[in-house]
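Table S2 (continued). Query chain:
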Amino acid sequence: MADLTPTPDFPGIRIGKEGPYGDAYADYACRCGQSANASGDDNVKDLVRDYTDNHGPAHRNGGRK
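Corresponding output:
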């Protein structure tokens, strides 16, 4: 399987879970240079919210949502 880890050259977000009872995890890299990672359901939700509001989608169309 290919490495799906986001990088500044291949920005995006990756979200996963270690089995049905494990902790969620996520990481992102944005073309603006920011990156972050999180583990645990609540922390992952916060990371996704941050990415959506301030990074990936926020940088499309000159920052207009």
